[in-house]
User: Fold these one by one.
Assistant:
Number 1:
Amino acid sequence: MTSTPTGRRVTVDGLDSIAFDRTFRAGIEDVWAAVTEPERLARWIGAWTGDPSTGSVRFRMLYEGDEHQAELFTIEECRAPRRLVLTSRVPGQEFAWHMTLTLVEHEGVTTLTFSQSVGDDPAMAGGVGPGWDYYLDRLVVAETGGDPASVDFGDYHPVHAQHYLDLFG
């Protein structure tokens, strides 16, 4: 599979970020479930544990090897099924990642816009951009009945790293 970088530079809540759009021929509730329900998340990205009503959960990426540690995700805002704002702190790192998911439905087609900050170091875009293109493409494949394992990270990174570095260069 040949991939194309889809992210664009944006400012979200005053932070330099990369935003991505994916469109689904599905209702907003269904797409919301795909990005929030544990069993559906596990098909394409990872798993969370804990009680979201407390304002935080632990999230672990499932497709980045066994050494990947669970991260604490703070739920800053949740307006189901339209908006979810999260902050994550990775153990051993000083900064936080800020992520925003916005869903809009029009005539049975839902657009998911996902953005993530790149932190204080613009060079982070070289990993963040290709990584989210990869995972969001896995989401699309999972939600259209395909096998997310068919999406190869090597088609995204390091192939598209320079595209994202140039956005912040």
Note: The CA atoms of residues 21 and 59 lie 22 Å apart.
Number 2:
Amino acid sequence: MAELPPPLLPHTVRRFPADLVETDQIAAEVPVALVFNGISHAVMMATPQDLEAFALGFALSEGILDSVADCYGIEVQSSGDACEVQLEVSSRCFQRLKERRRSLAGRTGCGVCGIDSLSALDLEPTPMPPQAWAAQLQATTVLQALQAMPPLQVLNAACGSLHAAGWATPDGVLTDVLEDVGRHNALDKLLGQLAQAGRLGEPGFVVMSSRASYELVRKCARLNVVALATISAPTALAIRIADTAGLQLWGLCRDPRAVRYT
């Protein structure tokens, strides 16, 4: 793998009211081009860390790849303050990608930037097969997983500006935490790491340090993640998509309170 730009950069600040000059750590935000079989498909603004997992998670959660087996190789390249991730994918998936004619300029907030038509929104997910354990998921379990996340947000502890996505077992044990300046990117990094380890189909749920947008719910539903819990509230569209997909959606998860929306 190429040597990547650092995820944090030092910056001199003046702190008030003490009027002290100190050095802070600031989150890096660099363009990351995702290139499929030599064709650039998307340029995302992201934290330059865990980029192989990010690219694989993006490809799976966006429906570009049907499975990990459709990805034959991933190579990360870096040039100055920009990065490029080259993915070699199956001809079937690549042909479908070209036919979709999507040009994603990047997602930092809204989740629909760059699509070329309303039909590309994909607002009607296929209902997921129910999982018996999810019916027993309790608020105390969800809150347990979210409470375990801050100590594992190493980069955010240093800079205070990164989102996190975590994976929890059905009994609330947090096993993975990935960070990024963008909440969508953090989720893709998490999903990609699970895919790399062959763990995408295992029972568990996603916890996130953000609100629940339409895009986060849609990404989870594509990969049969049946529960998502976020610290802030969801949007109305996120609730509708979750309801259609059969995804259990939790929001405003701040101990001792939590809200289940679907």
Note: The helical segments are 51-61, 91-100, 139-147, 154-159, 183-196, 214-222, 236-245.
Number 3:
Amino acid sequence: MKKVAALGLVGGLVAIVAVALVMFSGGFTSSTPVTITADRVGLVMEPDAKVKMLGVEIGRVASIEHAPDGARLELAMQPSMMALVPANARVEIKSTTVFGAKYVDFIVPTDPDGGHLQPGAVIPSDSVTVEFNTVFQHLSDVLAQIEPEKLNATLGAISSALQGRGDELGSVLEQTESYLAEMNPSLPQLQEDLVKAANVTNLYADTVPDLLHTVDNVTTTGNTVVEEQTNLDLLLLNVTGLANTSNQVLRDNEPNLVSALDLLTPTTGLLEEYAPQLSCFIVGLNNVRPLGEEIMGGGQPGIALSAGFFYGAEPYTYPRDLPKVNATGGPGCYGLPNPDPNVNAKFVVTDTGTVPYVPSTVMQPNMPKLFQLLFAGVYPEGGQ
């Protein structure tokens, strides 16, 4: 009986210890799975590592799986904490100290969205704290590439160069500090200048092919000038002679040229004023040129005319037929150069002494000028 009681007591103690261990490991606590992916997890990341957010434990690491492309951490999250983790939360794998164990830390973003972390979510890790062994490994790789004797010689040379020059080195450092203090306010402008310089260099880089092509063309032009040097000299001599001759001609005729230009000033001014009308008239005349060619027989050899006889016009008499220049109104195209065939042009009335053409219906002798000079009084009716 005592043996059975002792066996029961031992069994009860084992059961209590087992239940305590299971409770300590969270075996009786429900959890929500979440997966974390990372390039690496380090040497001190173990299962049952803590999962925190803002320093508060919200779960634990259930398992760690290693893969060729990194590692996967299966987290056992506390269900009551899932609603407090934003859906867009970031994840980092950190360690408390350089040699301490790692833990998973959820980082709350500055602009959390309205949702929360869902069960089964897969979140990539942003960063993993570098371990001391990684630092030593990198340092070991660097030292393996450096030959100790050369390093020793370099350090010895630096030591010899600095020996006895502490004051000078301190002075140089002080001057450097003063220079940097003066340059520091100009750093933003320097940064802006560097950005602009980058744009300029990019522009130069884009135009380099055209620049090189231009240089090639200039080289070809230079070679041509060298090859035609004799002809170029002759050309310059001829141009010099022409310039001398032209100078002499212009100098001798300077008064005549000035007078001619003065006389042409009113004419050119009038032409300038009527330049729009001249332009539309010439363009309009050119537009009707094909029609005129057809009327005049342009589509056949020879010329097509419709000839007839009209009464002769009265001869010119002085001063009755003197021209009268008194028209005003300035230039006007009146529909040219593309007139509307359905619109009649305006009838312009000007004070020039002219009247619409009316054919003469009276036969009058038109004596030759010689007879008019020799025999005074032999004029048409109304003449003088």
Note: The beta strands are 32-38, 50-53, 56-67, 70-77, 90-95, 102-107, 122-128.
